[in-house]
Input
Amino acid sequence: MSNENMTAEKLQIEPKYILRLAGTLFGICLVVALLLGVVNSFTGPVIEQAQAEKTAAAMQQVLPADEYRPMDQLPDGVLSMNEAVSGGAVTGYVVEVAPSGSQGKITMLVGVDAETGTVTGVSVTDHSETPNIGTKVVDDPSVLARFVGMSHDGGDITVNAGTNRFDGVSGATVSSKGVTAGVNTALAAVGTLG
Amino acid sequence: MDYRDLNLTGSSSPHIRSKDGTAHLMGEVMLALLPALAFGVFNFGLKALVNAAVSVVACCAFEWLYRKAMKKNNTVGDLSAAVTGMLIAFVCPVTIPYWILVIGDFFAIVVVKQLFGGIGKNFLNPALAARAFMLSWAGAMTTWAVPRTSVPLWGAADVATGATPMYMLHENNLAGLMEQYSLKDMFIGLIGGSMGEVSALCLILGGLFLLYRKVITWCIPVSYIGTVAVLTFLFPRGNDPVTWMLYNLLGGGLMLGAFFMATDYVTSPVSKRGQAIFGVGCGLITVFIRYFGSYSEGVCYAILLMNLTVWLIDRNIKPARFGVVKAGKSKEKEAAAK
Amino acid sequence: MNFGKQLKEGLLTQNPVLVQLLGMCSTLAITTSITNGIGMGVAVIVILTLSNIFISLLRKIIPNQVRIAAYIVVIAGFVTMVDLLLQAYFQDLAASLGVFIPLIVVNCIILGRAESFASKNGVLASAVDGICQGLGYTAVLLIVSAVRELLGSGKLAGITIFPAEYGASMMILPVGGFLVLGALIALMQWALNKTGKGGK
Output
């Protein structure tokens, strides 16, 4: 549409025409919204259920328990925290953290035992690490399993150094450091609970 | 004697004869690279030489095949492909498998150079672009043999490897680095690293030779190395400034990059001022990557990034044309005359 | 109406990605595996066809001044529906395509076809146009993603062709998308010029 056209139309515009514009647009929006509502009504529960199943499966993986209760008070740097309850007693915590990896945030769940303060499992739920490099850390359960049994008794966990040592994957130092930072945050978060 | 018997041909000036051609210049560059190659062989064994040979042959073969397939005049004789091949071997660890080297050669010659029209038309340094692509195989590209090892020609699985000086500088572990490698080791090249980058001494010798033969000018190397020196001296990250600066200058690919890669005619600005800007830019990015990046060495990316700005520099920094006086200056002169 | 001609235009001479250079963002971003490529392609075919049909139906009702707003509402509606359906029944695909499904709303191919074709042609022709242009887009996604997946991770549609450690991971990174798409566009231009259909 050229500018000339627009100004010509502007001059001729009548209240009735404006009503027609608004009416048509409103009608289209209404129909689309109705259709969306219909689709949402049957996909909504399915999506919700799938999400819940996925989270529950990931939590079961890092710290098996009968039930998980979301906690309201969250320490710094933690996305969410759940109490793992088995047989009526709190056995541990599942902490969701998102440290920085080499390409973006690594969203991960860390299970921590309530009694000993040790890591029971680590699971990465979302990441954008480099294929074939960073994925050697975040997509490899055997690498993540190296955290199991580690705690903050000997200070922060460090990568390829120190006594409280996590053996990273060579060539993927940044991703190794990322997941280690996540585990450290989770352990510290559980530590603040006392 | 009748002048009509003379074999005269009319042509316009200049009438100076010179053997300076691409092949001649590239030959000089090859010659200047030889000391560093010899040191690579001394430091890492015969595989360094074989790497260079494989890479040179592969580059020339790709150049020849592509020109042949596209029915274009063959430019393999100008030796530019051979220099690219040599440089690719130089910027890789000596333990690199041959097939990765050949893929890198293919990428440099066909994708980076020939697809854009061949010599003189590529906008990136082919050898460095190839290195960036070869980081696909990050494991093989970041495994560094320790100095004075004899790397076997096939299967380098059990070669002793260790962290390079650049890695330790990146960790800000200067004390550990000084313990492992003295400044003398760094200067001579008795360190781990890419096979052609280790010996600052040999590379400086080669660079001085190129300067003496007027193959390159001092603008880019001086501004590049100078910028890195000033920045590392001013911001030594809590270490002794002079020691920190010297380790930063001698480690990694700075000398090779500054003398042999940033000075590539095709991918650097034409004017002196433009070249100075180019060199300073390379220096800034190199130090930024070394200090703040997740990679420990930034020379490769610094030069590639500055390659991309060459058109911009050349468009804005034009040398003064002969006989043209700047507007401001001519007014000053007029004022002075009055 | 000529189905054969429209198909040829969509796939070759007026290919949305290679000739019209539309929808480049998603082409570069999601073509890391054939599964992604096909999933995205099918989603776009469905949305493009539906939006073309509806816009063609409404073309006489929608006033000129608000047509873009009306088109966007229609397109956004269909995109959201497809997004919800994918999340409900194809969770893995939805997870790997991520934000690029909602972003189909601003994919220029869809708005472009609505503006340049569906708003001027009948329902049947518009539906065929949606399918043909969508097929052209899908074909490009398929080629680019096949090359990138094979060279980058040594797989084709998830089936291992050669071990992943020989794969050039740069091909799965953004740079690989630019390289393959650039080469494909050049090849297309060369072929069109050769057959004298390049337009110039």
Observations:
- The interface with chain C takes residues 1, 9, 17, 20-21, 24-25, 28-29, 32-33, 35-36, 39-40, 43-44, 46-47, 50, 54, 130-133 of chain A (CB under 8 Å).
- The two ends of chain A are 68 Å apart (CA to CA).
- The first strand of chain A starts at residue 67 and ends at 70.
- Residues 3-59 of chain A form one domain.
